[in-house]
Specification:
702 residues, alpha/beta, Chitobiase, domain 2, TIM Barrel, Alpha-d-glucuronidase, C-terminal Domain, 3 domains, 23 helices, 12% strand, binds alpha-D-glucopyranuronic acid, glycosidase, carbohydrate metabolism
């Protein structure tokens, strides 16, 4: 725990094991690092902190190569450090993309050294964290020859703070860490947040919420809106953002702001925000200048338009390309970028078709500094959804994949639900856009303006994420955004070792719990056949999304006496036709559609037989029951760790798993009763409790 009493997450830097420690001391007790830029200040701070932990000795920091030492660590660019230029191929370093780095173990004038180098200072930050990760994982450092570049140029956290309310959109880890009233005064916690982000390669953070609507435009999200969206664009607001930027800059993280599309009206009383109005164009250009005067490395604007009550170009009969481009023109002279969300939904009967119908026809019409940010699935971060049809449909546009790190629909700050396997599935999904072997991840790594965005998870809670185990999702998000080819096991193993140390029993158990958690959640929250939106929403202003309440959502799961599921086939809403062949054909036929997505694409009779002869309704029952069994098992596996990890974290997770079991049972009981009521087909194992009380599980009181 650090002084302010919150967790260090994966940056604990526990002492290395004996033998390893000696070799680490030889090469890292003396550190020769450049000075001069904000990033290098951060590098030196991190090395001081990390080496003190790992080596159990404070390192000596030098501004020239130390003599008469057995070895040392050198961090800098070849331009600035001759010793480094002597040790690596300078051409190779110069060829590295922004953020790329090179690490080599070398002998230099008889000393055993490790060199961390890059062509940019930001690359040095990532290289340093990479070396520290290796050491925290107990890997040798005497034979290193590593070259890395980030696969995705943009790796952004949508933090989505509600300024001045101390809350975060879909934040389940307590109040916001940003104290806007006190900013520009800074807190140590901002530095630690930036460290966590940079350590996994994140290079942008959208500070404020996308829900920045004009009060009175009636939507369920009104309660989280308010004045936030435009306040930060005023002089006072920008001063606060500039203060945060000064912290993030040291770690190579650029700040972004969400803006309300009607900002000219809100801030300066314009009577229109029409993107084709010259006065509006000029307003945005002026605003961009003000922003860049205050924050020269500002990243750009994020916009949620024409969605859930937000303003947008449709207010003026303009397209989304016209809408985005006016902002893009304003940002372009400053090197800024517009992130335009594809989360638009109007009055379509099947919401799944909307994003593609809106944006695919606009391919090629967005300016070069516009990134279209698309949720991973067509609906909204459900435990399981098919992959968005826009990936692979817009060759002429920079796309970013939007993932949700915060667990809005997967147990919030309470349940253990490890999302890395879900994200891997999305990234590896073969769109077939250019024939077989066209994984979605290639779309996001394709160009400078493409990338990955994650809806943030961090709050003031001492755990940062509400549940210690949910830290793994933040870690995994960054690692995959940097390198989508990493496999889940590698990411999990890295996180567990850095977070809980090297005890093999702990590593096995925690990794196993994470591994099994997502399929269990999918089973007890959906029945595992592709159903979505089975959760409780409540009154418009509540939006609970934690408890079960399938009866609220007939349009999303399609349960009737005859069957269940939504017909999105060619004969139904036609959504399936937005995929390339042979994906479309595979999903279109219930015989070939993968079972886990079956009811997303098909409305089927309750007694429809699956490949192994089990009926749909029986499989739904079985999955709901087995999901609960797995969660009970996770709880027991965790309990076996008592005494093997510190009490604080042990008890915290144990308590949450207790709650998860209870909650999973509520989901199971509600869902199976719901399936039974519609199908009137009993569970063949006689497990479905058919009591009145079970049929009407009341929503939890908040
Ligand atoms: C969901 C979520 C909202 C969020 C929205 C979005 O609807 O519940 O809180 O604002 O997605 O992504 O914009």
């Amino acid at each position: 725990m650090s002084l302010e009493s919150y967790d260090d997450c994966w940056l604990r830097y526990e002492p290395a094991d004996g033998e390893r420690r000696e070799s680490y001391r030889t090469r890292c007790e003396n550190v020769y690092a450049s000075v001069g830029s904000p990033e290098l200040g951060a590098v030196r701070d991190e090395l001081r902190r990390a080496m003190t932990g790992l080596l159990e000795r404070e390192p000596h920091l030098w501004q020239h190569p130390p003599r008469s030492v057995e070895g040392f660590l050198a961090v800098g660019t070849p331009d600035e450090m001759e010793m480094i230029a002597d040790s690596v191929s300078t051409d190779r370093v110069a060829a590295l993309g922004d953020g790329g780095f090179r690490i080599r173990s070398v002998e230099w004038e008889g000393a055993e050294c490790v060199v961390v180098t890059a062509s940019t200072d930001r690359g040095l930050v990532y290289g340093t964290f990479h070396l520290l990760r290796r050491m925290a994982n107990g890997h040798p450092i005497d034979d290193l020859d590593v070259t890395e570049e980030p696969a995705n140029h943009e790796r952004v956290i949508d933090h989505w703070d509600d300024p001045f309310r101390r809350s975060v959109e879909r934040g389940y880890a307590g109040p916001s860490i940003f104290d806007w009233e006190r900013l520009p005064d800074l807190r140590e916690r901002y530095v630690d947040y930036a460290r966590l982000l940079a350590s996994v390669g994140i290079n942008g953070v959208v500070l404020n919420n996308v829900n920045t609507k004009i009060p009175g435009r009636g939507s369920a999200n009104e309660f989280v809106s308010g004045k936030a969206g435009w306040q930060l664009l005023t002089q006072d607001g920008l001063e606060k953002v500039a203060a945060l930027a000064s912290v993030f800059r040291r770690y190579g993280v650029r700040p972004y702001l969400s803006v309300n599309y009607a900002a000219p009206m809100l801030i300066d009383d314009y009577d229109t925000a029409d993107p084709l109005d010259p006065d509006v164009e000029e307003w945005w250009a002026r605003k961009a200048e003000e922003v860049y005067d205050a924050i020269p490395d500002f990243g750009g604007f994020l916009v949620k338009a024409d969605s859930e009550g937000q303003n947008g170009p449709y207010d003026y009969d303009r397209t989304h390309a016209e809408g985005a481009n006016v902002l893009a023109r304003a940002l372009e002279p400053h090197g800024g970028r517009v992130w335009w969300r594809a989360f638009v939904y109007a009055d379509h009967d099947d919401r799944a078709v909307q994003a593609y119908e809106t944006f695919e026809p606009l391919d090629g019409e967005f300016l070069d500094n516009v990134t279209l940010q698309v949720k991973n699935g067509p609906i909204d971060f459900q435990p399981r959804e098919p992959v968005s049809t826009l990936f692979g449909a817009m060759d002429g546009t920079d796309l970013a994949c939007e993932l949700q790190i915060t667990q809005e629909y997967t147990g919030q700050g309470v349940h253990t639900c490890y999302l890395v396997p879900q994200w891997k599935e999305v990234l590896d999904f073969d769109t077939h856009a250019s024939g077989e072997g066209s994984p979605a991840k290639d779309v996001f790594s394709g160009s400078e303006g493409a990338g990955i965005a994650g809806v943030g998870v961090v709050g003031e809670d001492p755990t940062w994420t509400g549940n210690y185990l949910s830290q793994a999702n933040l870690y995994g998000f960054g690692r995959l955004a940097w390198d989508p080819d990493l496999d889940t096991e590698t990411v999990t193993d890295e996180w567990v070792r850095q977070t809980f140390g090297g005890d093999p029993a702990v590593i096995d158990t925690v990794s196993g719990i994470l591994h099994d958690s997502l399929p269990a959640t999918v089973d007890y929250e959906t029945g595992g056949l592709g159903l979505i939106h089975m959760m409780y929403n409540g009154e418009a202003r509540l939006e609970n999304h934690y408890d079960p309440s399938p009866a609220e959502w007939p349009g999303y799961h399609g349960a009737t006496e005859d069957g269940i599921g939504i017909d999105r086939t060619s004969g139904g809403s036609g959504y399936v036709g937005q995929y390339h062949e042979p994906v479309a054909e595979t999903y279109d036929d219930p015989e070939t559609c993968p079972e886990e997505l079956l009811l997303f694409f098909h409305h089927l009779p309750w007694e429809y037989e699956l490949a192994d002869g089990t009926t749909v309704v029986q499989r739904l029952y079985d999955n709901c029951f087995s999901g609960v069994e797995v969660v009970r098992d996770l709880r027991e596996r965790w309990q076996a760790l008592a005494g093997r990890i510190d009490d604080r974290r042990y008890r915290h997770v144990a308590e949450r798993l207790e709650e998860q079991v209870v909650q999973a049972e509520r989901w199971r009981d509600t869902l199976v009763a719901f399936f039974y009521e519609h199908s009137e087909i009993p569970d063949e194992h006689g497990r479905v409790p058919l009591t009145e009380s079970n049929r009407a599980v009341p929503p939890r009181e908040d």
